[in-house]
Design goal:
two-stranded antiparallel ribbon; 13 helices
Length: about 300
């Protein structure tokens, strides 16, 4: 004997109304976030892209003039922008590999000792410290008679005036960046290490592998995706460097533009020279560069074998 249960049309209407009410409630919950993102993020991005094709100043927006690709063409003939792009690229090439390698080394060491929580907190503290405060601290350390030069003097070495030297100013900012951000990536690597199955290390121990061989053939390959995340985050952060260069050079990018970065040049062009259209074009060129580099890293590190 077969019993069939059917819903009356009224039951269908009740279920449909309940689903609509739930969907409406969900949209009402996310509506404030959608409005905030549209007003403060998505809208300004599209507006910035629009004015990047104009000769535009917020002091006189009515006299904005459409110049097509003029701002983008000007960028690659602007020696100041090219110097800023070169400085930023050199900064990224110096910081990303060093801080990634140190973060991985620290994560491997911390993962094998007791008191992991203490080391996590100790190494992560510089990351949550204000960038301005860190910059001021390093200015004090790198003064002509600062702690670093006093230490070098013990060995008879006369240290330079770091932040007033075109040769040493950018490397000093690199050292500051590595010190202040390596803890963040160490935490990410620690999470990746704890996801590696113990069985792999047990099998390696049975086969007689230890030390560097385990790191080379098990740890590093298993951290491939984690390394991709770390390098992408580090690359984006280094190409967007602003605070350190601004504080150290007092916003000028000196000495002799040796600490001028793309974001600092963008800030000066947009908010000091009031060339907002040109600054917007600079921002989208920087976005394109970061996107291309990220896609290259996705191809090299992000793909699965």
């Amino acid at each position: 004997m077969t019993i069939r249960l059917t819903l009356a049309p009224q039951g269908h209407r009740v279920l449909r109304k309940s689903a609509v009410d739930q969907a409406l409630a969900g949209y009402l919950f996310i509506f404030p976030a959608i409005v905030a993102l549209s007003v403060f993020l998505i809208g300004p991005i599209f507006y910035a892209f629009y004015i990047s094709f104009q000769q535009f100043s917020f002091l006189d927006p009515q006299s904005a003039k459409f110049i097509g690709l003029g701002n983008y063409i000007r960028l690659f003939h602007d020696p100041v922008f090219l110097r800023a792009l070169g400085n930023t690229s050199l900064y990224s090439l110096g910081v990303v590999p060093v801080q990634s390698a140190i973060a991985l080394l620290l994560a491997i060491v911390v993962n094998q000792v007791r008191g992991k929580t203490f080391f996590r907190v100790a190494y992560y503290l510089p990351t949550v410290t204000s960038t301005v405060a860190v910059s001021v601290m390093f200015i004090f350390l790198f003064q002509p008679h600062g702690l670093l030069n006093q230490f070098l003097a013990l060995f008879g070495i006369q240290g330079p005036n770091y932040f007033n030297s075109p040769t040493f100013a950018l490397p000093a900012i690199m050292a500051m960046a590595v010190w202040s951000t390596v803890g963040q990536f160490m935490i990410i690597y620690l999470a990746g290490l704890q996801d590696i199955p113990d069985e792999l290390y047990e099998a390696a121990a049975i086969d007689g592998a230890s030390g560097w061989k385990v790191t080379r053939y098990i740890t590093i390959p298993m951290l491939r995706r984690t390394t991709f995340l770390v390098i992408v985050m580090s690359l984006i952060g280094t190409f967007q460097v602003f605070d350190q260069a601004y504080v150290v050079s007092d916003g000028s990018g000196g000495p002799l533009n040796s600490t001028l970065t793309v974001i600092l040049d963008l800030f000066n062009k947009g908010f000091k020279d009031m060339q907002m259209g040109y600054a917007s074009a600079m921002a989208f060129v920087l976005f394109a560069i970061i996107l291309i580099l990220t896609l290259i890293q996705q191809f090299v590190l992000g793909r699965e074998d």
